[in-house]
C-alpha cells in the first residue's frame, strides 16, 4: 500500500500518463471531427522527425558529465548493440514455426519498434534529460541495424553505400553525435566563465545552454514540441484507420503479446542480471530501454513490408493494433518500473 501511495502521489508520473492519453485523444478528436485534414498527422510527423526530435536529442547532452553518467552512458551504448543481436536471436526463436515472408516480417516488426517517434517523447516526459540521453545512446544501434539487417532481410539485397548515408545523414543521428561529442569533450574544450545563480562557474564554450542561453532557448522550445507533436500525430493516425479488420487475425494478437509483453519481460530479466554483475545500467537507463522495447513496430519496418511485398496487409494490421495497445503497455511498464524503484529493487 505504501508503494501504491507513492506512485499515486507522484505528480510527474501521473502527469506524464495523463498527458499522453489526453493529447492522443485530442489528436483523435481533431481528425475524427475533420477539424484537421488527413495530411495533418503526416505533417506533424515530418516536423517531429526532422526538427523537434533532433533538437531534443541535442539538448539531452547539454548537461555536466559525471563519472556515473559517463559509465552508464557507455554501458547503454554497448548494450544497444548487444540488445539488437539478442532481439534478432529471440525473434527467430519466437516465430520458429512460421515460414517464408511471414516469418521474416514477424521477426523484423518484433526487433524494430517505433523507439524514436513513439518512445523517446514518453521517455522525455517521464525521465527528463538524463533518460533521454540514455535513450538516444541506445538508439544508435537501432538505426545501424534497422538500415542494414532490417533492409537486407526484407529486400533480399546486399548492404549498399547509400544505406550507410541513410544512417549517418539522419537529422536525429547527426544531432545525437554532435551532442555526444560536446558532452564527452567538455572537460577538454576552452572554458568560459559565466554567472550561475549569482556565482561564477566555468563551462566549455560549446555548452550553449550555459554560454549562450538565449540561443539554447530556441532549441529548448523545439525539443519541448516533441511529446505533444508525437501524441497528436498518433491520435490523428488512429482516427484514420479501421481497427476492426486488424483485430480479426489471431496472429496479429500473438504478435502484439510477443512485442509488448514477452520481449520486454525477457529483456527486463536480462538487464537485471547485467545490472547486478558486470554491466550496471541503473533505473533510468533500464526504464528508458523498457519503454522503447514496448513500442509498436517502426514505420520504416512496416514500409519495408509494404515496399517489398512481404505480408504487407499483415504488417499494416499488426502496426494498427499494437499502436493502440502500446499506449497501455507502456503505461503498464512505467508503473512496473516505478514499483521496482520505489521498493528499492532497482535504483
Automatic annotation (TrEMBL):
It is a multi-pass membrane protein. One of its GO terms (biological process) is transmembrane transport. It is found in: Membrane. Keywords: Cell membrane, Membrane, Transmembrane, Transmembrane helix, Transport. One of its GO terms (cellular component) is membrane. It comes from the Bacteria. InterPro entries: Mem_transp_PIN-like (IPR004776). The chain crosses the membrane at residues 13-31, 43-62, 74-96, 108-127, 133-155, 167-185, 219-239, 251-274, 286-306, 318-340. This is AEC family transporter.
Amino acid at each position: 500500500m505504501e508503494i501504491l501511495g507513492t506512485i499515486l502521489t507522484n505528480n510527474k508520473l501521473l502527469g506524464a500518463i495523463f498527458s499522453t492519453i489526453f493529447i492522443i485523444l485530442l489528436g483523435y478528436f481533431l481528425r475524427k471531427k475533420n477539424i484537421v485534414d488527413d495530411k495533418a498527422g503526416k505533417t506533424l510527423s515530418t516536423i517531429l522527425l526532422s526538427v523537434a526530435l533532433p533538437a531534443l536529442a541535442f539538448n539531452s547532452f547539454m548537461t555536466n558529465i559525471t563519472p556515473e553518467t559517463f559509465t552508464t552512458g557507455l554501458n547503454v551504448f554497448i548494450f544497444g548493440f548487444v540488445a539488437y543481436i539478442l532481439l534478432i536471436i529471440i525473434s527467430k526463436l519466437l516465430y520458429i514455426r512460421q515460414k517464408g515472408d511471414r516469418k521474416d516480417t514477424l521477426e523484423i516488426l518484433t526487433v524494430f519498434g517505433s523507439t524514436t517517434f513513439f518512445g523517446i517523447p514518453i521517455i522525455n516526459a517521464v525521465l527528463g534529460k538524463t533518460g533521454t540521453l540514455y535513450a538516444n545512446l541506445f538508439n544508435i544501434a537501432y538505426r545501424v541495424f534497422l538500415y542494414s539487417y532490417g533492409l537486407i532481410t526484407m529486400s533480399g539485397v546486399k548492404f549498399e553505400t547509400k544505406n550507410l548515408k541513410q544512417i549517418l545523414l539522419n537529422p536525429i543521428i547527426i544531432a545525437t553525435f554532435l551532442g555526444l561529442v560536446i558532452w564527452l569533450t567538455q572537460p577538454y574544450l576552452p572554458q568560459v566563465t559565466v554567472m550561475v545563480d549569482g556565482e561564477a562557474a566555468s563551462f566549455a564554450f560549446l555548452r550553449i545552454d550555459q554560454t549562450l542561453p538565449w540561443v539554447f532557448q530556441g532549441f529548448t522550445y523545439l525539443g519541448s514540441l516533441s511529446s505533444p507533436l508525437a501524441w497528436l500525430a498518433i491520435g490523428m493516425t488512429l482516427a484514420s484507420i479501421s481497427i476492426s479488420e486488424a483485430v480479426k487475425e489471431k496472429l496479429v494478437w500473438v504478435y502484439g503479446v510477443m512485442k509488448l509483453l514477452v520481449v520486454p519481460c525477457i529483456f527486463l530479466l536480462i538487464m537485471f542480471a547485467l545490472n547486478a554483475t558486470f554491466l550496471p545500467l541503473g533505473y533510468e537507463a533500464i526504464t528508458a530501454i523498457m519503454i522503447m522495447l514496448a513500442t509498436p513496430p517502426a514505420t520504416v519496418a512496416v514500409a519495408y513490408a509494404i515496399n517489398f511485398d512481404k505480408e504487407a496487409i499483415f504488417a499494416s494490421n499488426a502496426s494498427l493494433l499494437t499502436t493502440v495497445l502500446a499506449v497501455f503497455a507502456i503505461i503498464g511498464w512505467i508503473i512496473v518500473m516505478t514499483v521496482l524503484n520505489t521498493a528499492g529493487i532497482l535504483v
